[in-house]
């Protein structure tokens, strides 16, 4: 295909036929784990589909350990929990992960942690077509302006009630985005690459990197393309987080507890926000156009505008309530 010359009608026909023979590919991989002094369960899923409905996966892991002890012995409790949600479909990847930990002791040491990650991928092509444009013939060059929406939130916090540095918490969260939009131009290609990433760390209240509102927001890009030849779109994104804590004391009568919680929420983006303009080889604006994939998805539209499922937005609320319940139980265990 790379050796074909654009002036050859047979080459254009072959590329168009190949385009209509293959639809998009969508992949999601999610993983959730939790632990205390001992490793806890790991829930991991990975699936790839080639249907325009896309693929959605979720994973959950919970670790719970308790030792009530007695009047003259140590006691401890440990809880780790994490969730991972991923969804990939034409023009959109939605990811969210959470992690929670809680531990409490009297006269001993206990740890807890939750860790989760989510990965989304999509690979699709679309063909720009025009109506009533005599200068937009197959093989001629044009340009287009498109927009993408890359925005989310990274939050985290905790508490450590006990002697430092023995009682503490730590949170690390990350996100990455990699988008490539490519169009063959003669013997080469015009490629728009959009790479972005961020890291958030919080060690017992010391936020060393990161912020709550992250991403690029809605951004516009321009590229050249050839009428009659499909434009390819490859997108991958990842989010991950770990929240852990340690409660430790030096004497049998002393008590300590700790907790931490984190949330990396890109559940409404990463998303294709539409084609805003198409121009012919003379730089003149084209009034009427479409950008259809082999599955009939029109990339002229804003495909990033997808309602957030209630199950994803409410996940962190339920986990925090569970942590508060465990901490109340810990307080009741102490003599």
Question: Which key features would you list for this structure?
Answer:
single chain; 335 residues; mainly beta; eight-stranded antiparallel β-sheet; seven-stranded antiparallel β-sheet; 15 strands; 61% strand; elongated; disordered N terminus
Can you walk me through this structure?
The chain is mainly beta. It has one domain (9-333). It contains three helices and 15 strands. It has helices spanning 9-21, 310-313, 315-333; strands at 25-35, 39-49, 55-67, 75-89, 92-106, 109-130, 141-161, 168-185, 188-203, 206-209, 213-226, 231-248, 255-266, 271-279, 289-293. Strands 1, 2, 6, 8, 9, 10, 12 and 15 form an eight-stranded antiparallel sheet that branches. Strands 3, 4, 5, 7, 11, 13 and 14 form a seven-stranded antiparallel sheet that branches. A hairpin with a 2-residue loop joins strand 4 and strand 5 (92-106). The radius of gyration is 26 Å and the shape is elongated. The model is unreliable at 1-21 and 307-321 (pLDDT under 50).
């Amino acid at each position: 295909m790379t050796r074909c010359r654009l002036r050859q009608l047979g080459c254009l026909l072959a590329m168009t036929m190949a385009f209509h023979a293959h639809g998009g590919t969508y992949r999601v991989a999610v993983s959730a784990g939790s632990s205390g002094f001992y490793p806890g369960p790991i829930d991991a899923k990975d699936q790839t589909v080639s249907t325009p409905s896309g693929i959605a996966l979720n994973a959950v892991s919970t670790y719970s350990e308790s030792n009530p002890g007695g009047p003259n012995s140590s006691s401890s409790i440990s809880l780790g929990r994490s969730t991972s949600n991923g969804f990939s479909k034409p023009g959109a990847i939605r990811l969210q992960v959470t992690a929670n930990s809680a531990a409490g002791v009297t006269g001993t040491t206990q740890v807890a942690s939750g860790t989760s990650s989510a990965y989304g991928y999509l690979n699709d092509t679309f063909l720009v077509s025009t109506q009533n444009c005599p200068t937009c013939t197959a093989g001629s060059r044009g340009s287009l302006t498109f927009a993408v929406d890359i925005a989310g939130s990274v939050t985290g916090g905790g508490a450590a009630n006990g002697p430092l540095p023995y009682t503490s918490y730590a949170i690390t969260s990350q996100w990455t985005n990699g988008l490539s939009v490519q169009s063959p131009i003669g013997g080469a290609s015009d490629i728009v690459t959009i790479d972005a990433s961020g890291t958030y760390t919080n060690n017992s209240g010391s936020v060393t990197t990161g912020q709550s509102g992250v991403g690029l927001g809605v951004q516009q890009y321009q590229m050249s393309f050839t009428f009659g030849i499909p434009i390819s779109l490859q997108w991958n994104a990842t989010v991950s987080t770990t929240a852990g804590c340690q409660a430790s004391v030096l004497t049998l009568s002393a008590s300590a507890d700790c907790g931490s919680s984190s949330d990396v929420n890109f559940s409404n983006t990463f998303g294709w926000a539409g084609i805003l303009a198409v121009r012919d080889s003379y730089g003149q604006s084209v009034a009427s156009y479409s950008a259809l994939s082999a599955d009939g998805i029109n990339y002229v539209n804003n495909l990033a505008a997808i309602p957030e499922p209630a199950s994803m937005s409410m996940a962190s609320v339920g986990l925090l309530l569970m942590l508060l319940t465990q901490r109340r139980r810990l307080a009741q265990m102490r003599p």
